[in-house]
Amino acid sequence: MTPDIDKLTKVASQVRRDIVRMVHACQSGHPGGSLGCADYLVALYFHTLKHNTKFSMDGHDEDLFFLSNGHISPVWYSVLARSGYFEVSELATFRKLNTRLQGHPTTHEKLPGVRVASGSLGQGMSVAIGAALAKKANNDSRLVFSLHGDGELQEGQIWESAMYASHNKVDNLISTIDVNGQQIDGPTDKILSLGNLREKWEAFGWEVLEMSGNDMSDVIRVLDLAISKTSKGKPIMILMQTMMGNGVDFMMHTHKWHGSAPNDAQLASALAQLEETLGDY
Amino acid sequence: MKKYTYTEKKDTRSGFGAGLLEAGKKNDQVVALCADLIGSLKMDAFIAEFPDRFYQVGIAEANMMGIAAGLTIGGKIPFTGTFANFSTGRVYDQIRQSIAYSDKNVKICASHAGLTLGEDGATHQILEDIGMMKMLPGMVVINPCDYNQTKAATMAIADYHGPVYLRFGRPAVPVFTDPDQKFEIGKAWMVNEGTDVSIFATGHLVWSAIEAGEKLAEEGINVEIINIHTIKPLDAEAVLKSVAKTGCVVSAEEHNRIGGLGDSIAQLLATNNPVPQEYVAVNDSFGESGTPDQLMKKYGLDTEDIIKAVKKVIKRK
């Protein structure tokens, strides 16, 4: 199947509109990383995943996705809603009292599509490995995907799980790192440099691919390539280069928009740059 | 007064190992994980019987908790095994977010709890684990008293859906409960009925309470002994019923007096029926190296300490 890149790009534009509107409406949240990962998550949910929007926690015979860097919840919520897990109108409740769309994703409020809480960083790869092991034990040939921030690699648990996955040949797992080079206090190179990520992950025994995360054609190409590399004895790592804030000019080239919300004028400026393709919620 | 005897001493961790094997036979969704302590956790029999249902994670407890949470998503019932210290304090945030808040059906099985771990010393003798785990919403906390009860508890938690903390120990202790008992989560066990004082004991302290009760009976003091094997949810009905009769309490546990069973009982009584209470517990300190018996004596957790506490609390009525 040849994916319709134009169609996916249009979905991503709407998702970016959702992100800035959600964050603006509650004046909190994390727009920068959300915008940067919009293309990846749209490609995943609208092209790659074999999934059922009639949500079941166990997800037998479907591909599973785990968001480890839970603070980019706006992009995930938008993609889940736009792909049919729940009504898009619910996006208006993001971060508000009694919402299922908590600041960081949780199973606690029973939001369809979420299988574990995340937000405290470094835990999602372990959980994804567990789910991948369960699939193997259940003779379920579907795959498990996970997404992590690059700053998140500073958490030690990531490297525990990295060792485990290669040693135990968890080859039904495709993890992706959002390499945007930014974290809350500044560029990763200044805060705690990550070094050569390709060499690191290869040294940990992973099959490493690189992807241009804000180029929909490349995202599709690399995700397809990653799937072709599964079941070969190695877990797969995609190093995804993205631009934090991608799609909104004033949110790019800075870590400033990691965790702050636009004001009314900034919202208007952002929305003017993002085509409304599927109708705002 | 019921008379309790024993013919052998066994470690409660072996009760866990035996229970895990039985749970595995009964339910093929039961799987086990261990962080490089198979022998200490007595998991060998399960691994021999079900090698494909065992996951060795190495010395990486945080990863173990996350993997366990993930395994539940495919319908598995994971039992994690390591020392109590590494099952709780080391991985509190992993348990909090990936297991408790995410309502995952993980059984956190923790050996070598408390002072009776012995010679390894305070780095390994956790005395705060009950407190940490009982504060997590939705977490069940169980601390059985002997081999048979630990085996029964291990089998029972496999049938219960939700996160559980199961705490047990290293040393061989008297085996005095029914080998065929049915373990009911949250249901206290009436060890001996009495009228003068209620002793609420958990874990290794239950046998000490029985010994104390026998000696006190010789002095004409009639104690009621209740085994609180499930610290959370606490069997409030059993506690309140007993206290309504006796009017005073001794709580006994191998844990810091802050945050343990005694505090759970005090909180219940403060809001329902305030009565004098004495704690047999570690007085807000770390442990140290020594034999289990030496340590229990030095830190005020042996039979004589229960006797003293009973006499003191009765005077305060």
Question: How would you describe what is shown here?
Answer:
With 281 residues, chain A is α/β, with parallel strands linked by helices. Helices cover 38% and strands 12% of the residues of chain A. Chain A contains ten helices and seven strands. Chain A has helices at residues 5-26, 31-36, 38-48, 73-82, 124-137, 156-167, 188-191, 197-203, 216-228, 264-272, and strands spanning 64-67, 144-149, 173-179, 182-183, 186-187, 207-212, 236-241. In chain A, helix 1 packs across helix 3, helix 1 (5-26) packs across helix 4 and helix 5 packs parallel to helix 6 (156-167). The longest helix of chain A is centred in the N-terminal third of the chain and has 22 residues, at 5-26. The model of chain B has no long low-confidence stretch (mean pLDDT 98). Chain B has 13 helices and 14 strands. The longest helix of chain B has 15 residues, at 12-26. In chain B, helix 8 links the parallel strand 6 (140-142) and strand 7. Chain B folds into two domains: 9-174, Rossmann fold (3-Layer(aba) Sandwich); 189-315, Rossmann fold. Chain B has 317 residues and is α/β, with parallel strands linked by helices.
Secondary structure class of chain B reads: alpha/beta
The CATH homologous superfamily of chain A is called Thiamin diphosphate (ThDP)-binding fold, Pyr/PP domains
Any guess at the CATH architecture of the largest domain in chain B? 3-Layer(aba) Sandwich
Mean of residue pLDDT values of chain B: 98
Beta-strand residue percentage of chain A: 5-15%
Over all CA atoms, what is the radius of gyration of chain A? 17 Å
- The quaternary state of the protein chains shown equals heterodimer
Shape of chain A: globular
How many DSSP E strands of chain A? 7
The biggest sheet of chain A, with number of strands, parallel, antiparallel or mixed sense and barrel status, is: 5 strands, parallel
